Description:
Elements: H1 2-28, H2 32-59, E1 75-78, E2 81-84, H3 86-91, H4 106-109, E3 135-144, E4 149-158, E5 164-173, E6 179-190, E7 193-201, E8 208-220, E9 226-244, E10 250-252
Antiparallel strand pairs: 1-2, 3-4, 4-5, 5-6, 6-7, 7-8, 8-9, 9-10
Amino acid sequence: MKKYNILLILVTLLISCNFQSQEKDSINQPSDSSANRAKFYNTKEQLDKKKFHLLLGELDAMKLPLINNEINEYVKLIEGEYYIDTIITKEKTSNYFELFDNEESNAIVNNTKYNNLFNNTTSITDNFLYKIRKKTYFPLASFKFNNYTLIGSFVQFFGENDIPGVFYIITSFNKDGRQIDYLILYCRFNFETMIIYNFKCDRKFSNIVVEDIEEDWTLYNDLGDIIGEKEIPELIEHSKLYEVDNNGFFKEK
């Protein structure tokens, strides 16, 4: 009986030690879900890098437009709504949309004031154009610097009430195809207020002028209800001067 009790104690101790060892190993080693998640992100980064270099190969022979007149002909006004010409949308696929991040750009976050129709001291982060998420990119051209590459893209977007509009955006990427920053250079959007962005750049993108013109045609009564259109629109115009720094961020000068 005494031998049996000793044997039982030894078996219990052995099982307990084995369980504690397995528990320690499970704590020290990543879970399957963590490993799979890390593998997914590593794979995505590799795919993005591959896509980025494939895109650059397609854009090598093209140059970035330096003034809005170079792209006006590719934007069509149809029944009061703006669309990208089918010449662009047919020739340039949107297979690279995953490379472009729609988060607010550093250029906008670093600004402190933005003049608009409602308040001349409104934060520029309230610029709703940078908050639009429903966008399709059609990359057009690229320009390579030492630490980053700029890619210019036509963008078909859908804003308020799914009304279509057109952007031309320049986006900076690092060598691994990760987006650094972006800036809206060109805009055509017609809702209650017509919004027009025009631009002009030097060849080094050290001086980027973005002109914003807002035409308010809407006529309101004293209660704020829309009752028609003004004979002459209220115009608000302002411009911003930007540059791209050595790290690929757009800064207001």
